[in-house]
Amino acid sequence: MDALTAIILAAGEGKRMRSRQPKMLHRLCGRPLVAYPLRLARTFADRVVMVVPPSTEGMVQVAGDDVTTVIQRDRLGTGHAVMQAKDGCGQGTILVLPGDMPLLAVETIERLVSHHKTAGAAVTLLTAIVDNPFGYGRVLRQRGRVTRIVEERDATDDQKKISEIGTSVYCFDAQRLWSALAEVRPDNDQGEYYLTDVVAILSRAGARVEAVTVADSSEALGVNDRKQLAAVAAIQRRRILDRLMEGGVTIVDPASTYIEDTVTIGPDTVVAPQTVIEGATEIGSECVIGAGSHVSGSRLADRVVLKPYSILEDAVVEEGASLGPFCHLRPGCHIGAGAEIGNFAELKKSRIGRKTKIHHVSYTGDATVGERVNVGAGTITCNYDGQRKQPTVIGDDAFVGTNSSLVAPITIGEGAYIGSGSVITKDVPPGALALERGPQTVKEGWAARRKAQKRKDD
Predict the structure, then answer these.
(1) Are residues 133 and 61 in the same domain?
(2) Does residue 328 carry a catalytic annotation?
(3) What's the per-residue H, E or C state across 162-183?
(4) What is the CATH number of the domain that holds 308?
(5) Which one is catalytic: 26, 115, 359, 360?
(6) Do 165 and 200 lie in a common domain?
(7) How many domains is the chain built from?
(8) Which residues contact 440 (CB under 8 A, 6 or more apart)?
(9) How far apart are CA 343 and CA 148, in angstroms?
């Protein structure tokens, strides 16, 4: 089989984005725009060449080591951009993909490439039939055969009425492409070298020009401004949710659920309304993600329950743990199997052992907590000494009473007890009881004397 090279055109300035960041690096459902054509290219191509702008910061990192990047220093059009990639391409078939069309389906590109090779075409273009073709190049046909593409700026009034558009996606025979590109001239309204002109050049030369039309015209949607980015994101989010539901995930209210393309969720998990799940998040089977929860960059094992309005950032939660409502796991937390993290509990960079309970209003930071520990309401680890963060270590089966403050660095031994209301500043040996309280004072008859004094003052 002929080798296939994919060229991704990602050097556009994206002026309409009104952004200091290159358009191709704007994120769509968890990935940079250009990551979507890159994923497609890797599916089909033996080699991938990406044309990038002179300011390549971030672009090379997104491309990865397996992609050849070439710079288009002068913005002289799509034909000029493809010419910059010539030295990185081999013989055989060349697939050209725009960097700003994230909705293209694998099945569509597979059909395009297959048709091109079967037909032995010099070029096969991907087209779409749309209700509003404004802004797109129109596909001109003669007796059903494609003869050329005319850009919006250069189209006549009659040509502008044509509803078939070019999507800027092509398959070329490499040899025919380079010879035709050499003939392209910037004789147009913008003074640019249009890749679309190659179609007319090949057609006039009697070469075989083929076209494949997308089944779903939304695949042809590109992103030129933030409104289009939002519109494309809405379609992509629905695709993500459909894929998850087809895989056995219950999405209670798709309209209010935001899940990024980078997320995986196991079957029989239920996702409640108003949730946001993003980043490289992995959620196992039979989990419950409660209403209003926000999970990013985290890994949840099977049968984890997130009660409503839980926030997890870069956390690991083991099987059968329960969290929330209104708990906050800041980055670096690891929650053991069967552990229970309750109402308004905040944890940061802490490891919590199996079946440990931290049920109520509390803060646990830079701590290692063993198995089967009970941490009472209002407990805090005082982890910051004004200069650096200090660790707290609590052994298995320890009991920390309500409203305790553990001043780090400190170690509470296995099976130790901390009396409620204590401020613990020294290590506690295993099995010991630690108390730190002022003596209780009781003044008999104080309330009556206070009332009498108030009457006298009045």
Answers:
(1) yes
(2) no
(3) CCEEEEEEEEEEHHHHHHHHCC
(4) 2.160.10.10
(5) 360
(6) yes
(7) 2
(8) none
(9) 65
Instruction: For residue 416, tell me if it sits in a domain.
Output: yes
56 and 188 in a single domain? The answer is yes
Write the pLDDT tens digit of every residue in 279-328.
999 999 999 999 999 999 999 999 999 999 999 999 999 999 999 999 99
Question: 261: which 2 tokens?
Answer: 């393309």
| Cβ-based burial of 359 (10 A; exposed 0-12, middle 13-18, buried ≥19) | middle
Q: Are strands 288-289 and 305-306 parallel, antiparallel or unpaired?
A: parallel
Model confidence pLDDT, tens digit, residues 68-119:
999 999 989 999 999 999 999 988 999 999 999 999 999 999 999 999 999 9
Record the tokens describing residue 48, joined without a space: 């991938």
CATH number for the domain including 201? 3.90.550.10
String of DSSP letters for 27-90: EETTEETTHHHHHHHHHH-SEEEEEE-S--TTHHHHH-TTEEEEE--S---HHHHHHHTGGG--
The boundaries of the domain holding residue 170 are 4-220
Strands (E), 177-333: 209-213, 250-251, 258-259, 264-265, 270-271, 276-278, 282-283, 288-289, 294-296, 299-300, 305-306, 311-313, 316-317, 322-323, 328-329
Q: Please provide the size of the chain in residues.
A: 458
Residues 42, 174: one domain? yes
One domain, residues 273 and 139: no
Q: Rounded distance, CA 56 to CA 62, Å?
A: 10
CA-CA distance, 202 to 348, in Å (whole number)? Answer: 63
Asked if 273 and 416 sit in the same domain, the reply is yes
CA distances from 444 to 411, 451, 453 (A): 40, 14, 16
How much is the pTM?
0.90
Q: Answer yes or no: do 296 and 359 share one domain.
A: yes
Report the SS3 class of residue 449.
Answer: helix
